[in-house]
Design brief:
Layout lengths: L6 H11 L4 H10 L6 H9 L9 H8 L3 H37 L5 H11 L10 H11 L8 H21 L3 H25 L2 H18 L2 H17 L3 H15 L5 H16 L3 H17 L14 H15 L2 H14 L5 H17 L3 H14 L7 H13 L2 H12 L2
Length: 415
């Protein structure tokens, strides 16, 4: 909503009073000393972005306004936006709390809109600041750091809108190649978060976009990473055959070069084959993953969503061996993963504990398995009781019997 008496209303009124289109106004702003597009003018008028101080001299010159008038209008818009956001946050928390309790996950309209914009923006149209979006990817690739998936998506919404604009305006082949490479990473991160939230349909849509831009960039390492991550959606939500197909494609894209993406692809392939009860294939993939881990270092092993550190390796192998029923190996990797987990990592710790509970069930101790899983669930913050964690707990529930089944079911049904 545009602020009453804010910068958007002021700029639009002055432009229309002068009888100029947004395109003409953008040309005049460019002539005044700063490159400007029609999209810039539109965003200011709709207040999806507010002009920063570097734009004030050009705005003053082209619109015939005083600088204090511009500053005052921007301040009014910023104050109004803050008030609206605080009000929306209160309502969103109420809505998400109620909806998540009944459905496990809810859609985020801003994220869906951004996905549609990026998907439709893959045809280029002008220049973009590639370095900025490489920085965006760098900022967001580090993981949750104790934050909820919804919180991280909220931080990314504005960057996603900026990315859709940049994709539309970038013409130069070299710059576009760098931009789409960053776009593949950024959209892949959104897909990962939607996967963790349990919004499977939207995760697949975001991964489809990430795969498209990765293929356009020609960067096989990025393509391998996107495909490996995409494989985890069907893998974690009950479609291991499809997961194995994506993971195999990821392994093929990675080729023979040892990279973090290649190791991730191999690990996910191992998990998918284990889920399909292909014991020999899974063990071969595990051996290949172990070999790759020994040959990568530096950024390839960084503790980010794009790297393949030792902690992540043990998390993947914990699940692979759990699915194979090799509880001795699974317990070993669970202990190693926990020893390397330094950050809050609420979701990772919960998933490892559920792997342990699944191993206890395999070993015949249904009561202990249910008790451990119920304890994990009871300690989880409400915002984490959905998506992947709930799915993994539900899979375990279906494999328990008698009092153990009842114990865990009551824990999962409790509000």
């Amino acid at each position: 909503m545009v602020t009453p008496d804010g910068i958007g209303q002021l700029l639009r009124a002055e432009r229309e009073r002068a009888g100029r289109s947004r395109t003409e106004q953008a040309r005049r702003l460019t002539a005044a000393g700063r490159h400007c597009t029609e999209e810039n003018v539109k965003r200011w008028e709709l207040e999806t972005r507010l002009p920063t101080p570097v734009w004030y001299p050009a705005i003053v010159s082209v619109y015939g306004l005083g600088e204090e008038q511009v500053r005052g209008a921007v301040a009014a818009s910023r104050w109004y936006r803050k008030q609206q956001k605080e009000s929306e946050d209160v309502e969103r928390r109420k809505f998400l709390g109620g909806a998540a309790a009944t459905l496990g996950t809810v859609a985020l309209p801003g994220i869906a809109q951004a996905r549609e914009h990026i998907d439709s923006a893959l045809a280029p149209s002008s220049e973009a600041d590639v370095a900025y979006f490489e920085g965006v990817f760098e900022r967001h690739r580090g993981g949750y750091a104790g934050r909820t998936p919804d919180a991280v998506l909220g931080l990314m919404e504005q960057d996603l809108e900026e990315l859709s604009v940049a994709l539309r305006r970038t013409r130069h082949a070299g710059a576009r190649g760098d931009l789409v490479r960053a776009a593949a990473g950024i959209t892949g991160l959104v897909a990962i978060i939607q996967h963790d939230r349990g919004d499977l349909a939207d995760a697949h849509r975001w991964f489809a976009i990430a795969e498209n831009v990765a293929r356009e960039s020609g960067d096989l390492r990025t393509l391998s990473w996107v495909l490996a991550r995409r494989a985890m959606v069907p893998l974690n939500y009950g479609a291991p055959r499809q997961a194995a197909e994506y993971a195999h494609a990821a392994v093929q894209a990675a080729g023979c070069t040892p990279t973090g993406a290649a190791a991730l692809a191999s690990a996910v392939h191992a998990r998918a084959l284990a889920a399909l009860t292909d014991v020999d294939g899974a063990r071969k993939a595990i051996a290949n993953t172990e070999s790759l881990l020994q040959r990568i270092d530096g950024d390839e092993t960084a503790d980010t969503w794009f790297g393949y550190p030792g902690q992540k390796h043990h998390v993947h192998l914990s699940q692979a061996y759990t699915l194979l029923g090799d509880t001795k190996a699974a317990y070993r990797h669970q202990d190693a993963a926990l020893a390397l987990t330094r950050s809050p990592s609420v979701m990772t710790r919960a998933l490892l504990a559920l792997d342990t509970a699944a191993c206890l069930r395999t070993d015949g101790d249904h009561r202990e398995a249910a008790g451990m899983a119920a304890g994990v669930w009871d300690r989880l913050p409400a915002e984490h009781r959905s998506g992947l964690v709930r799915t993994r707990a539900t899979v375990l529930l279906d494999r328990l019997d008698g009092p153990a089944h009842k114990h865990l079911r009551e824990a999962l049904e409790a509000i």
